[in-house]
From TrEMBL:
Keywords: Heme, Iron, Metal-binding, Monooxygenase, Oxidoreductase. It comes from Lithospermum erythrorhizon. CDD domains: CYP71_clan (cd20618). The lineage of its organism: Eukaryota, Viridiplantae, Streptophyta, Embryophyta, Tracheophyta. This is Oxygenase. It holds the Pfam family p450.
Length: 526
């Protein structure tokens, strides 16, 4: 389909060039003048550009791989022209440090893409908002009221329940001895954890909110993820919006309306519940309750509904898919490498034993499992790029001119496979992350060396990293402790495929199927 888009695009460009009489001459003059102007300005190196579309046609179906190969060819910092947009890309730790730390003030903004405008309340959220007082206020609400250590601790019991539901679900399915669709069980685990914390309800399992509501919720969140991950040509070629041949903007507006209706219902339910209960006990408040209890701007009694909706949506989008995708990749790599599974289980048996379930308190002591998660992030970061950053003013990197409003694609997939910093890049080898000094805890987010960057750094770094790490470690620890794992009958471990699909997150192309065999006492699964 992308090929078709591109073919149409090329034909359209030719058409525009040939059919319009005046613009052709104007464009030639413009290009000449801009070349003259740019003679003094040294942009970073990069591939040659086509008229109008620039380098857009070169991105292909797996842009992270294409952009990494451009870094191999042109150097650690590459300039691209994407339609009317200046862009740079890098997979190099030193350049990334320069962008995210040394020049954080310049690069911590976000582009106003059409998806962000339609699907994130006019960029009024945290993740897609440009740098400014609104983003600062929304981010502060996240950090001070929602994602504090105390608040996260208060949800520990819910997380333990969901971990038990996960194990119980897999145990029930394992009785049939068929292969289990791991995407489904891991997706339900992440979604239930997030919606319990955010909205106070489960969407899957025994106490779920109801099939109809769960299906609707899943459907709109999938559509939302898909649209947010799309490279929409209208963001780069303004004329594309006149045609919008695939109806993307129409789809965005439809999803915007459905998501908004869904959020309005959630707020209404919470307000009604609050009215019935009077003052709520702190310990039983979910995120929506907390947001409803906060004062608004300029002396207003409450936050605007729109701010609450934008925050809730951000949390759902940022927390669910990222942890589910990471868990599925980790499971795939571990089942593909039985020697790694054996080492994980030896560690679990020694730290936890086989007479009880893993608890969150154990996670800090599972150093080998922590290396497995780091290695998973190296090879399969949740998203192929960080969320695009944008420069707020012109600046220089390594002596090269970077114009204002340059879009920045930090290639985390390319960073983990950069041969200048990693050996045997295609080998899944958790041991490479073991610290030189035994007894030191393995850190899962980036280190000072910027060799992996699962949660980014600087002003825009992920505020949910501690929760994300817990969700990932907990699911994996429970699943590897409670079950032995193998590929479906007739498939050898090394045949498990690791093909990926591009999007805002980067899941395995095909869902992982695996066979589970219980390995601890039966009563522990109940
Ligand atoms: C394994 C799980 C997770 C991974 C790998 C992950 C990774 C990331 C990454 C790479 C970014 C982009 C940073 C940048 O553009 O520089 C990000 C942003 C963000 N994440 Fe996470 N995340 C995870 C879980 C969570 C959770 C659980 C939450 C909240 C409940 C969350 C909330 C956010 C928010 C609000 C942003 C936007 C920050 C901003 O733009 O200021 N994330 N995350």
């Amino acid at each position: 389909m992308i090929d078709l888009i591109f073919l149409t695009l090329v034909l359209l460009c030719v058409y525009l060039y040939v059919c319009s009489k005046v613009p052709l001459a104007t464009r030639v003059i413009e290009r000449f003048l801009s070349a003259e102007l740019r003679r003094d300005i040294k942009l970073p190196p990069g591939p040659a550009q086509w008229p109008i579309v620039g380098n857009l046609l070169q991105l292909g179906q797996l842009p992270h791989r294409v952009l990494a190969s451009l870094c191999d060819k042109y150097g650690p910092l590459v300039y691209l022209r994407l339609g009317s947009v200046d862009a740079i890309t890098t997979n190099d730790p030193d350049i990334i440090r320069e962008i995210l730390l040394q020049q954080d003030d310049v690069f911590a903004s976000r582009p106003r893409t059409l998806a962000a405008v339609h699907l994130a309340y006019g960029c009024g959220d945290v993740a897609l908002a440009p740098l400014g007082p609104k983003w600062k206020r929304m981010r502060r609400i996240c950090m001070e009221h929602l994602l504090t250590t105390k608040r996260l601790e208060s949800f520990m019991k819910h997380r333990a329940d969901e971990a038990q539901n996960l194990v119980h679900d897999v145990w029930c399915q394992s009785q049939k001895e068929d292969a289990i669709n791991m995407r489904e069980v891991l997706g339900a685990f992440s979604m239930n954890n997030v919606t319990r914390m955010l909205l106070g309800k489960q969407y899957f399992g025994a106490e779920s909110a109801g099939k109809q509501e769960a299906m609707e919720f899943m459907h709109i969140t999938h559509q939302l993820f898909w649209l947010l991950g799309l490279i929409y040509l209208g963001d780069y070629l303004p004329f594309w919006r006149w045609f919008d041949p695939y109806g993307c903007e129409k789809k965005m507006r439809e999803v915007e309306k459905r998501v908004d209706d869904f959020h309005s219902r959630i707020i209404e339910e919470h307000q009604k519940r609050k009215g019935n209960k009077g003052q709520q006990y702190e310990g039983e408040m979910d995120f929506v309750d907390i947001l409803l209890s906060l004062p608004g701007e300029d002396g207003k009694e409450h936050l605007d509904d729109q701010d609450i909706k934008a925050l809730v949506q951000d949390m759902i989008a940022a927390a669910t898919d990222t942890s589910a995708v990471t868990n599925e990749w980790a499971m795939a790599e571990v089942i593909k490498h039985p020697n790694v599974l054996k080492k994980i289980q030896e560690e679990l048996d020694s730290v936890v034993g086989r007479d009880r379930m893993v608890s969150e308190h154990d996670l800090a002591h599972l150093n080998y499992l922590r290396c497995v998660v780091r290695e998973t992030f190296r090879m399969h970061p949740a998203g192929p790029f960080l969320i695009p950053h944008e420069s707020i003013r012109a600046t220089k990197i390594n002596g090269y001119h970077i114009p204002a409003k340059t879009r920045v694609f930090i290639n985390t997939h390319g960073l983990g496979r950069n041969t200048k910093i990693w050996d045997n890049i295609d080998e899944f080898k958790p041991e490479r992350h073991l610290p030189a000094k035994t007894g030191t805890r393995v850190e899962i987010s980036h280190g000072a060396d910027f060799k992996i960057l699962p949660f980014s750094a600087g002003k825009r770094k992920c505020p949910g990293a501690p929760l994300g790490v817990t969700l990932v470690l907990m699911a994996l620890a429970r699943l590897f402790h409670s079950f032995d794992w193998s590929p479906p009958d007739g498939m050898r471990p090394e045949e498990i495929d690791t093909e990926e699909v591009y999007g805002m997150t980067m899941p395995k192309a095909k869902p992982l199927l695996a066979v589970a065999r219980p390995r601890i006492a039966t009563h522990l699964y109940q």
